[in-house]
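Need residues for this backbone.
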């Protein structure tokens, strides 16, 4: 299976057009949150409509800059992974949107307890899958989450979930733009794909035993 992974689009549908060739060749498009700039439904409708020109296989979570209407729209389209598990080509996908609560409150924040509950809810639906992929807007605490202020902006609930579920092999996230990159949390690969609005995205190949991650930049 091949995936094109975008995060932090922030209302710029040009990002979709610029990655269209790769999206068309991939089995699915994964969007890891912050789809809109102002958080409104009309923005996410426009972004998703643009993406649907190239694929109908979309797996997404909303971000902390997206309002509740964005989550509801993704659920209506059957694209959301927030508290939802989906089996696709033998791989189990589940996720959580928004972000943990920080000193700077944004449009969509959850307590760590709420994040943990959402993750468990989605995981239960795909726990029989041999390969499992967690899509979270916010990174796990301490991994791919260091901000320009040298603080760690990740979620303890996401971190603890990965540490306690040894069968989750890959976590795809965004949120902290400057912390883009690939790292490990115990057994799992964590990829903060960075902001596609700033030119960063990723291509992933999944096989039974191998995960190949290719970080990309728009020209």
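Answer:
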């Amino acid at each position: 299976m091949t995936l094109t992974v975008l995060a932090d689009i922030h209302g710029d549908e040009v990002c979709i057009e610029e990655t269209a060739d790769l999206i068309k060749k991939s089995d699915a498009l994964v969007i890891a949150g912050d789809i809109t700039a102002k958080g409104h439904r009309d923005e996410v409708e426009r972004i998703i409509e643009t993406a649907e020109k190239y694929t109908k296989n979309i797996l997404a979570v909303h971000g902390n800059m997206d309002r509740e209407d964005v989550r509801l729209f993704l659920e209506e389209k059957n694209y959301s992974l927030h508290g939802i598990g989906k089996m696709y080509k033998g791989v189990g996908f589940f996720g959580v949107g928004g972000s943990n609560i920080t000193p700077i409150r944004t449009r969509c924040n959850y307590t760590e307890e709420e994040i943990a509950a959402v993750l468990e809810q989605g995981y239960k639906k795909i726990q029989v899958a041999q390969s499992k992929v967690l899509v979270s807007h916010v990174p796990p605490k301490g991994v791919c989450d260091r901000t320009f202020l040298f603080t760690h902006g990740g979620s303890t609930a996401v971190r603890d979930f990965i540490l306690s579920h040894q069968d989750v092999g890959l976590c795809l996230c965004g949120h902290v733009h400057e912390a883009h990159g690939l790292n490990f949390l115990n057994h799992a690969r964590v990829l903060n794909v960075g902001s596609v609005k700033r030119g960063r995205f990723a291509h992933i190949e999944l096989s039974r035993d191998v995960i190949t991650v290719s970080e990309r930049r728009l020209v």
